[in-house]
Input
Amino acid sequence: MQIDLSGRTALVTGSSQGIGLAIATGLAGAGAAVVLTGRDAAKLDAAAAGIDGQVTTVAGDVTTDEGTAQLLEQVPYVDVLVNNLGIFGAKPALEITDDEWRRYFETNVLTSVRLTRAYLPGMVERGWGRVQYIASDSAVVVPAEMIHYGMTKTALLAVSRGFAKEAAGSGVTVNSVIAGPTHTGGVEDFVRSLVGDDLSWDDAQREFMRTHRPQSLIQRLIEPEEIANMCVYLASPLASATTGGALRVDGGYVDAILP
Output
């Protein structure tokens, strides 16, 4: 398939590293003008330097009203919005405080809602647009070690379906992507926190998949570029009939035909 996003502007939140950077790189490779966002200007500049294409950066904290206003001032409209920003971490269920529940919800869910609310009307008015939410297998198979994270990813599935209904018949599609256990720097730290520092990375990854993610059918961590491939497709005209969906790039982790 040939995907051409020339003339389209794409915004990817949390895109200075990991899955977000891989998605931005893929969209730029398809011809889109890409906007990277994150809190660290130096990391954004380094990320932008590694992308071949038209790239701009906006440094700021979009979990705040001030950071969001700054972003909207610099980037008033987009054709593709990928809500990738998210936080995660392990914590015993009964030790998660009210403040942590709020922080996870506000970061992982409310930020995406706020940006969708800002950009979706323009997409509908122009008759074309793509909104995506990067969810997780944890939305369906909530991990015992981080139920607050799983809760936010479950919420994103509902948010995505709801906004798809809001955009019905407009030429705008809204979908979520269920990403499975993915190899990023943050996940490496997470794996180490569960299996220890004594093993080599290859052995640590295998032990993590064996003991904590045994449902995986590919029996390895997913590479960020594999998530990006789905996102680039969903951003393209080729996915014009795909909306309101939760599409899995989970390595077969979720043991169900449908999410």
